[in-house]
């Protein structure tokens, strides 16, 4: 055995010409194969996670937009409810309620619901052909608010209670508070689900990075032996997982946008169907606002960056254990 062969092997410094040539060689070829079963599987996982996160983000924007629209619509009007009382001409009380509401400043249009309008309002729950005289159904007077600053709701409430028999004023404040609380809880739940999906994505990338390093341990060992810096190896993995994140995020986000567009088209195409009309009245139609589509696009890039950053940190942690 020669002296040269018996000499112990040592790590070459990072600025050694051999190491620089080795780095130049590997700069044109990735340490991790770009097309592998594990890579395609991770792309599918990222696409599914991005799809679920995008659906959650879109649902949150729909709920928030519907709640704001509801609160705005409800806040623009109040209702005078007139209950039937034996021996009292309810039609006369309705006319008096309309005249009383029109006397207040800040009031716009005042409209008393006709019997036909009341029947249509109750038809989804009580069925068609409802006899209003056979049931103690309150009659409604809708008072639209033109200028909330000029309207004294407390005074109107007092006047209605004292002047109109069997009447009361409903400013819908309780319903608005409940609606806001419900929408807030649903938004918090959606954001929680979104965070959990992203956490699951991070864990998947960590395990995939560890598996990729284990599968390419020989190459990593050689590079580490000849003095390649941890940053160089981490950048190779980061570039690989960034491309996987971009592809998976684009697939998942694109599918989510397609689902949003299809849902909007279906809700428009089912107009006139009782069940669909009730759903539309409740949430205002499954129409994603522009902010929702923007959130999906941001989420696609966020997933790609998160995937790359997670892989980089995972590689640094694994190399630190090796050293």
From TrEMBL:
Stretch forming the signal peptide: none
Spans annotated as Disordered: 1-22
Keyword annotations: Cell cycle, Cell division, Membrane, Transmembrane, Transmembrane helix
Residues annotated as transmembrane: 41-63, 185-207, 249-267, 279-306
GO BP field: cell division
InterPro entries: FtsX (IPR004513)
GO cellular component: cell division site; membrane
Name of this protein: Cell division ABC transporter subunit FtsX
């Amino acid at each position: 055995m020669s002296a040269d062969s018996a000499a112990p092997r040592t790590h070459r410094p990072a600025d050694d010409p051999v190491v620089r040539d080795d780095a130049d060689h590997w700069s044109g070829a990735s340490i991790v194969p770009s097309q592998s079963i594990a890579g395609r599987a991770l792309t599918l996982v990222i696409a599914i996670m991005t799809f679920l996160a995008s659906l959650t983000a879109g649902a949150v924007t729909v709920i928030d937009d519907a709640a704001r629209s509801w609160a705005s619509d409800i806040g623009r009007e109040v209702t005078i409810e007139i209950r039937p009382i034996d021996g009292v001409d309810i039609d006369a009380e309705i006319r008096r309620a309309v005249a009383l509401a029109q006397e207040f400043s800040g009031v716009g249009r005042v409209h008393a619901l006709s019997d036909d309008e009341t029947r249509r309002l109750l038809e989804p729950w009580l069925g068609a052909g409802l006899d209003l005289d056979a049931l103690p159904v309150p009659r409604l007077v809708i008072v639209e608010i033109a200028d909330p600053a000029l309207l004294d709701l407390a005074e109107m409430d007092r006047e209605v209670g004292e002047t109109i028999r069997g009447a009361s004023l409903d400013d819908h404040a309780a319903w608005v508070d409940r609606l806001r609380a419900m929408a807030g809880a649903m938004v918090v739940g959606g954001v929680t689900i979104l965070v959990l999906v992203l956490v699951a994505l991070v864990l998947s990338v960590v395990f995939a990075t560890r598996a990729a390093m284990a599968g390419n341990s020989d190459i990593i060992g050689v590079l580490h032996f000849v003095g390649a810096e941890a940053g160089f190896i981490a950048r190779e993995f980061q570039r690989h997982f960034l491309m996987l994140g971009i592809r998976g995020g684009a697939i998942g986000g694109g599918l989510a946008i397609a689902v949003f567009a299809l849902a909007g088209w279906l809700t428009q195409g089912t107009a006139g169907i009782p069940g669909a009309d009730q759903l539309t009245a409740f949430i205002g139609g499954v129409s994603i606002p522009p902010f929702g589509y923007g959130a999906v696009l941001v989420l696609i890039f966020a997933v790609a960056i998160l995937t790359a950053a997670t892989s980089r940190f995972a590689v640094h942690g694994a190399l630190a254990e090796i050293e």
